[in-house]
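Researcher: Batch entry, complex prediction.
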Amino acid sequence: QKEVEQDPGPLSVPEGAIVSLNCTYSNSAFQYFMWYRQYSRKGPELLMYTYSSGNKEDGRFTAQVDKSSKYISLFIRDSQPSDSATYLCAMKRTGGFKTIFGAGTRLFVKA
Amino acid sequence: EAEVAQSPRYKITEKSQAVAFWCDPISGHATLYWYRQILGQGPELLVQFQDESVVDDSQLPKDRFSAERLKGVDSTLKIQPAELGDSAMYLCASSPWTSGRVAGELFFGEGSRLTVL
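Model: Structure tokens for the complex:
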């Protein structure tokens, strides 16, 4: 079993829809939870991060972490065609430990 | 805005040949990573450098892969001989010792896409 599980999709939604992306994990030592966005043929870029549990909002994006359930989510409100990309969840322990990535969910937002 | 530079962007080679990828991290970033991303999967760490020292190469197939960061700045990842299963995107990332946004935020380059025929 992988440490981080993520449904690869693809997920197709109409423009303006609310998108929910999710990951589950098995290692309770993870403290940093991140979402990276990767456009086709590009490297990933950090979109959101959360330390420990709770919610974090940044514009149209909201990240949620539920450590009791080992479950994290990314919500995108008023989705736009420019949001079409692969969204990778990522996690790491405190200290110098490596970042572990999920498989990524491909999102398509149709105009 | 400072970026991680990688070359070549694309490489096609035949199996058993040698290939090399180069990475120049963001200036001042002490930590450098090489990740491999197979199509449809997330990036997997191959090797992590802190300055010129390797701190994690547990997932690097050392019989065919090698990586170096001699002066603690740019880095080279080599594969010899290449195998069909090595076809993937090779991503270089760097991070500062401390980050203003998150400890260990990774700044990725655009990657080097390898196709082994």
